Amino acid sequence: MSKKTTAVTLAMCAALAACDSKTRSPGITAPEAAGLAASVADPGSTPYDWGELALGTSLSADQPIGAAQAATGGRATGSFELGTPILNRAAEQYSFAALSTDPAPTAKGQVELHTLFVGGLQSKVHIDVDCLVIVGNQAWFSGPARRYVLGGVPQPPGLYLVFRVEDNGEGANALPDRGSPAFSGPPMACALMPPFPLIPTANGNIQVRQQ
Length: 211
What we know:
12-stranded antiparallel beta sheet; 8% helix; globular; 211 residues; mainly beta; single chain
């Protein structure tokens, strides 16, 4: 992880330090894969749309998590950098910190996202996290954009983004941590646990801790 990315991540974690650490009980039911697309409200047209990219693309999306595996409570922090162009993304990186709050799956935290789309259009987004689901070493988090600048032009409110990340441990023998591109979705989209494709991070470190 770069010094700049580390500093951003540590700052985010420090902002969450005052949160309580109560034990949360499971409360998420995973949707069936076949009903996933139908269960997602149309978030409007943005470069982050994933309706047409949901299941059945040329990318091999991971299998969805079964309801029995779903859990809540914990935190996810770190950073992700896309190592190779994918879909409409030429490059993408984000730093994040998300901490569960009561009642599940509500959460607090933030995400700083920078995307370079194919064709040269750039986007910078600041997300206020309000939803977090953790299952084993994977986490889904989502929230509304507090600030969304596309092509240098501030955009109106309404963008809501969801992310999926995977913590594969530390050390020389650990597999690279993985993350998904950012996609738009409905409020509390993390509860859907969408099976976005997970891509090894080119430069970053992801930590997922379940309570």
